[in-house]
Amino acid sequence: MDNHFEEDLDSLSDEALKYIGVTNLDFRTHLSQDELDEVQKMLFSINTLLQITFKDGTEVIDIENLKHLLELSPMCDDRKVEKMILRHNSKEEVKKILMMPYDNPDTWKIAYDIKDETYLITTIPNYRLIEEYISIVLSCIKSDMSPLEKIKEVYDFVKLLEYDKKSSSRLPDIVRTRKTNNFGYSVLFTKLLERLDIKSFVGEVEREGEKEYLTLISIKDEKYDVDGIYAFDPASDSIPKGLYKSDAIRKINYNFFALPVKKIVDTLDDSKLIGTMSLITSSSFDYFNRHLDSSDKDTLEKTFDDNIENIYQRLQKTKVIPDDKVISLCLDTIHQEDFLGLSNNVNNLLSNNYHLRKKEIFCEEESKELQTVNIHDV
Asked: Taking Cα atoms as reference points, which of 165, 198, 166, 200 lies closest to residue 186?
């Protein structure tokens, strides 16, 4: 055999097996044309590729180009390659990524939340469900709403989740099933607030041996003359799904809406604040500052856009919102059409429920049954 022909065969063999053993591709910068050509060469050769990761620095066009090559590749089974989009995507980029047609969308994973180097990921179909749900919620937010009214609107949606101790607290699972555990209420609440550019901090509470969660939000609302850092607990205001037929009725609880942290501590004898939340209620800033974990300090300062001493002082000075103002807020933003056909007057229904429930929860007077409000048949 001709020696030159043998050398050509050896060269061809080496080239053909060049990509054997390569299982992962990790992209962190925009792909040049030469780099794209090299990837195409790999995908159209014998290869062992199992995963492709796109991180910050790559662009949506890179994702689109690689997707196209993978689907055309005769040597690579797109169904068996996991694609990971781990980037800080803008709203516009997310929209472009989700609108792309995919042959195997379940093999594409995208980060729906990123904190530092921690990525919470889900599939493209699940992310589409998240975006559809968030769009439905945000469509109810009017541009002329005050900050507190916007928060109340989101609060109403979160309260409609069905509590299930064994359910997941992952956002994709919450949106898909509409069920969650105690933590999941805060997960959805903070995610929706984030889309309204409202930052929040989630703290832990231990009640009867179970962990529950409070969402702290800094609010300055001139319409209702409210200025402070308030705690929200949509899980405690949520009504079990099977109790009433009407979702409108399931929204009537507002006793854990916009409370000063000290109000919760002073009135709920069986509650116990954990970690940062327990420090917030300390009577000394020096004690608070000395025992606060540095990472939590950074988180609080970033969340409330202020230094830690000002945040502490604002928490201490936050006043209880008068009952009539809370009820007025709820009635100002209520969807009257949801209550069509109810025999009860909506204003009285909401107001009576608020006051009677408050007496039961906060022990202001002797506990009473909700016997004056008959809503079991709606």
From this structure: 200
Contact 357, 370 (CB under 8 A): yes
Phi, psi of 229 (to 5 degrees): -110, 115
CA distance 325 to 330: 9
Q: Which residues contact 52 (CB under 8 A, 6 or more apart)?
A: 24, 25, 27, 66, 70, 81, 82, 83, 84
Contact between 281 and 265 under an 8 Å Cβ cutoff? The reply is yes
Is residue 63 pLDDT above 80, yes or no? yes
Q: Which range has the top average pLDDT, 157-171, 238-252, 360-374?
A: 157-171
C-alpha to C-alpha distance for 156 and 178, rounded to whole angstroms: 14
Q: Check if the beta carbon of residue 44 is closer than 8 Å to that of residue 18.
A: no
Three-state secondary-structure class, residue 359? helix
CA dist list (Å): 292 to 14, 216, 325 = 60, 17, 34
3-state secondary structure at position 22: coil
Cα–Cα distance measured from residue 311 to residue 299, given in angstroms and rounded to the nearest whole number: 12
Cα–Cα distances in angstroms (integers) from residue 247 to residues 105, 151, 309, 341, 350, in the given order:
33, 18, 42, 14, 14
Dihedral sign of CA atoms 129, 113, 184, 170 in order: positive
Alpha helices, DSSP H, located in 2-32: 3-16
What does the alpha-carbon distance between residue 215 and residue 230 come to, in Å, rounded to a whole number?
Answer: 8
End-to-end CA distance of the chain: 91
Task: Measure the CA–CA gap between 88 and 115, rounded to whole angstroms.
Answer: 10
In this predicted structure, the answer to whether residue 378 has a pLDDT above a threshold of 60 is no
CA angle, 291 then 295 then 301, to 5°: 90
